[in-house]
Amino acid sequence: MILLDTHTWVWFVSNPELLSAKAKQKIDDAVREKAILISSISVWEVALLVARKRLSLTIELDDWIARSEGLPFISFIPIDNQIALKSVQLPPPLHNDPADRIIIASAIKTGATLITKDEKIQRYQGVNTLW
């Protein structure tokens, strides 16, 4: 089971050439196993990036999200009380980006490997990452 960080999800869907070879292989394996998770906070992050014109999609945002939701190998994880609480209780050192903290807490709760290029997250000892 893997969980895609927000940028990994965007790249997987729109620019797979930006993925590392190891990340691409792990994602390809997870596609076959129907074992890809994405935190709902990533939907919020993508919507915010589009609204701020820091991310441009080739189709409307709602359609882009709906297409991802329709993929049979992706499951979205809602932010439940356990994830919300865990995101605040993560031990230091970790930067304070709330979305990253929720993604990390989601990976910990599910036992998933977090696929991320974010070096701060990769250095964090509390979560299994791959890039």
Structure description:
This protein is α/β, with parallel strands linked by helices. It has one domain (2-130): 3-Layer(aba) Sandwich (Rossmann fold), CATH 3.40.50. 54% of the residues lie in helices and 12% in strands. The chain is built from 7 helices and 5 strands, in the order E-H-H-E-H-H-E-H-H-E-H-E. The chain has a 5-stranded parallel beta sheet with strand order 3-2-1-4-5, sandwiched between helices. Helix 7 links the parallel strand 4 and strand 5. The longest helix is centred in the first third of the chain and has 13 residues, at 21-33. The protein starts with a strand and ends with a strand. The model has no long low-confidence stretch (mean pLDDT 96). It comes from uncultured Desulfobacterium sp.
Identify the CATH homologous superfamily.
5'-nuclease
Gyration radius over CA: 14 Å
The helix content, as a percent range, equals 40-55%
Strand content: 5-15%
Quickly count the helices.
7
- Strand elements, count: 5
The overall average pLDDT, rounded, is: 96
Major sheet: 5 strands, parallel
Q: How are the strands of the biggest sheet laid out side by side?
A: 3-2-1-4-5
- Unreliable stretches (pLDDT < 50, length at least 5) are none
Query: What would CATH call the class?
Result: Alpha Beta
Supply the key terms.
131 residues; alpha/beta; Rossmann fold; five-stranded parallel β-sheet; 5 strands; 54% helix; 12% strand
How would you summarize the topology of this molecule?
Blueprint: E1 2-4, H1 6-14, H2 21-33, E2 36-39, H3 40-51, H4 61-70, E3 74-77, H5 81-89, H6 98-110, E4 113-115, H7 119-123, E5 129-130
Parallel strand pairs: 1-2, 1-4, 2-3, 4-5
Helix pairs in contact: 5-6
